[in-house]
Amino acid sequence: MEKETGRLEAFSDGVFAIAITLLVLELKVPHQANGEAVNSAALRSSLLRQWPSYLALATSFFTVLIMWVHHHTIFKLVRRADARLLFANGLLLLLVSVVPFPTAVVAEYLATPAASAACELYALVFVLISLAFYLTMWFAFRESTLNPDASRKTVERFRRDYKLGPPLYTSAVIAAPFSPLLSMGICTALWIFWAITTGDCVED
């Protein structure tokens, strides 16, 4: 049976690639303040002070990367796309394209008194992304769009694992005012969890 999702997948791959590339722009070359000595010790100190940028970049990069891997795997199981699937996928891509913004906010403010607001924003964006991803998956896994030969085991695993996304990202939003690092830790733990379970999904 002919597969009809080639253009959708190509367009989606482009958006994921652009979003993930823009994340690295948050890494800045440190500059010494006027009158501050320029030496290796000062540079090392400046580089270490940018730890929020490294944390935000790693969390966002791997989350988007794993989302792309899962998106690719889901559409290997899909035979055709209808309007509902196209629009659901479009909503997901819109939100993925926004990821560099909350990443930049966390990189800028995680080490400041405004860290809780930055982490609230970050986690909230991923609440929306997880809902959009689940919606896309819901429309992809209907009988009218699913390949008849698709692995039902993989379909059920995706449905089970991605139910965790919205409530756990919501817990990261709730945790942010009390502990910004706990909020980011929840977001980091989620991409690690999905990274560990990715192998099973891809191999089925």
The residue ranges in which pLDDT falls below 50 over 5 or more consecutive positions are none
Shape: elongated
**What can be said about the biggest beta sheet?**
none
Task: Tell me the number of strands.
Answer: 0
How far is it from the N-terminal to the C-terminal residue, by CA? 20 Å
**Helicity, in percent?**
over 70%
- The H-and-E topology, N to C, reads as HHHHHHHHH
Average residue-wise pLDDT: 87
Q: Give the percentage of residues in beta strands.
A: under 5%
Q: Which class of secondary structure composition applies to the elements?
A: mainly alpha
Number of contiguous helices: 9
C-alpha Rg (nearest Å): 19 Å
Give the structure's gist in a few sentences.
This protein is mostly helical. Helices cover 74% and strands 0% of the residues. The model has no long low-confidence stretch (mean pLDDT 87).
